Amino acid sequence: MFKAAMLLSHQYNITIEGEFIGWQEEQTTGNIIDAMHIMCHAVSASNVVGVIGPRLSREAQVIAPFGEKLGIPIISYSATNPDLSDENAYPNFHRTVASDFAAARALAKLFIRYNWTSCTIIYQNDAFGIGGANGISKAFNDSRLTVSQMIVFDIAIRSIRGDLKSLLVNAPTRMVIVWADTDYTYLILQEALDSNVVGPQFTWILSITISLNYFNQAFYENLIGMFFIEPAVGSIVNEPINATLLDAAYNIWNQYEPESFPGSMNVDNYALFAFDATWTLIQSLQQLCASKINTSSSCLSLIESSDCLDRRFIHSKLLLDTVSGTEFLGVSGPIQFSDNVTDRITGLYYSAKNAQPSSNGLNFVPVLEYIHPKDWRIPIKENVIVWSGRTLTPPSNRALLKGVNLRIGIIESVPFTIVEKDIDPSGQTTIKYSGYVLDLIKLLRNKMKFIPIIELVPSNMTYDEFVRSVSTGVYDIAIGDVTVTSARSKYVDFSNAIFDNSLRIIIRTTSTVKVDLFSFLKPFSNNLWLLFFGTLIYAGILIYIMERKDNEVLQNRSILNQIFMSIWYSFGNVVGYGVDFHIATSAGRLLTVGLYILGLILVASYTANLASDLTIAKTNNIISGIDDIKSGKIPFNRIGIFAGSSIEDFYLREISNGVRNFLPLYSYDEIDRSLLAGIIDASFQDSGLAIYATNNIYCNLTLVGNDFDKSAYGIVMPQRWLYAQDLDVNILQLKEDGSLENLRQTWFAMRQCPDSSGISTEIGIEATSGLFLIFAVISILSLILFAWKKRQNIKICLFQLIYRKKSSVETNDSMNRRSSKASEQSQNYQIELPDISHF
Predict the structure, then answer these.
(1) If DSSP states are collapsed to H, E and C, what string results for 246-312?
(2) Which of 151, 192, 763, 813 is a Cys-bridge partner for 122, taking CB atoms 3.0 to 4.6 Å apart?
(3) What pLDDT shows up at residue 310?
(4) How far is it, in rounded angstroms, from Cα 530 to Cα 532?
(5) Domains: count for the chain
(6) Are residues 206 and 118 in the same domain?
(7) pTM, whole model, 2 decimals?
């Protein structure tokens, strides 16, 4: 396209001082010394007033200063190193291709689009590779993305520095960006394929196009899903271009070199950038010479010298200013340069292509397009993205545990890890694991597809030793009822919480209830009771004084009876019962108001305190919570603590100030049995374990007080573990979809012990027995008083009963005597009656 632009200028009759612009074409090899030699030879042999190129950034970094020395513009079409944007360092340099920093910003937006957060960069160690890698690092840092590592491809030895497989596998990211030329990219990819670090485990993004069919077909599945991002022209992203100029250039190319013309659809984008670079210089020269220059010499005059470094273009500043101000619609899009940088500032486009299988092998298919400074978008002709592994789901950038053998250490702790021996009919014994931890491992395995290798730790291993076994490499991870603590975090990392935890106090259940006959009197102190009854007597005497002459009820009674009636009146008004007579005086009414007020407060206070005391009376545990432990209500040597655990750390930190005055125990089962045996009186346990034990195993143990020292269980991981993010994300998903809560309900909501909570809320007879005893005494006294009051009536009734009985006896004797007398008379006067039986 360089030649096409020059020939088109002839066709358009663009001349300088009546002559067509001539050109000279040279081919560089990438060696900067060769490039300097070619440049020096060219400017010595002819009047060179501008350079289109060079192709490589490392060449441009040398040729541009050479051009500055000569005072001529250097306009590149493919040198993308961001360092070349510095106008102060390269004042005579311009380019029609976008800087790699623009590409880096496009890459950052691509990562944000697919929620990728980090990458590995493989770059060649020259100006192009180093500049691109630095540009990506800056753009990623600006977007809060991470470059996990940068791997060097040494162009001198044409190989990666280090073990590529080890570097990639041990990196926390699975996104790989390659910033290298075509030849080096082939070498890098081939080494990656041989090391099996391409797809589907890794997603690769290339900065330059390559032919995927170059590789062995056995690797095609690994290459599917790869990305290639290249600078694009306006026609690819449906932005305006100079179609007339483009068609004319294609016609000239096809006319003069038909054997090299690939067809209008297959022309490389860099060829179009080369045309616009050439056309920029042509228009600048034409504009320079068309302007009025105050000199008699040619507008293209140079200071001649046999030494190429001593030659100088006379109108250098005018020409460079003209180039900087050039603005037109080119074949790649709008062309415009900045006053502050050497870069093109308009018409910056990128195309993202995806490696997909086709009938003729693998091809890159355009799937996204980018217009600076906007965002990526789907092209009008949409193509579905095929990701690594032939999936339509965007991959994660993090290292995944899929297919990884994972050594998992577990520690026996019911119900988190339950160990059971199963004997089959043949007598063979197998160990079976179950519990919260085993169910969690199953959930994670199903989601993450790792291969678990589960190992039970020795029974005598402490929790601190269990945690350290991960940092020493005995296990890859450890799962159990392991509390996250700052001390442990110094040598291991923890996953997101798998179980919310706290501490509880566990003690023996107290079955006996202490009988207190006078518990109903406890709401008031003895002094208050004395004051209360004294006030009633005092108020009764006042009522007697105020009412005895004016109140008909109190008249015609004895003084003692009047006083008792007045005290009865005071008592009835205080307790709200009421009395059977009314006050007749104003002073009495005022005193009654005082009694009402006194009764309102005292009765309400008594009722509230009595309810509280009776409720508290249902529990008679030796302690009520952690404050009783701190105050020493239980001897410290009667407190059992799990040695080598986070509970021990809490006790030393919060209870004993570092003094080991507790009884060390080495398993939760030992703690529970020690409580039942009376060896200890209390212990601290993690809430989940304590609830399960008291609900299902040890029914004679109970929990007291509220929970304290809230914490969480986490999976123990090595520090900076490769798969930490993958594990955390999946644990968070299990929490969000309710799976962790379902596990908690499955293992901790069950209950086999009787539920004593309902019984403990009832007020028993024992708590009120004294009240009923007092009532019984009062009732007996009432009956005695009643009998005493009715003693005269009882005497009369008894006399009447005796009299009636005596009268009845005398009457019976009289009747008996009369009957006997009549009998005698009947014997004296018997009459003989005839026998009539025969009738």
Answers:
(1) HHHHHHHHHHHCCCCCCCCCCCCHHHHHHHHHHHHHHHHHHHHHHCCCCCCCCCCCEECCCCHHHCE
(2) 151
(3) 86
(4) 5
(5) 4
(6) yes
(7) 0.69
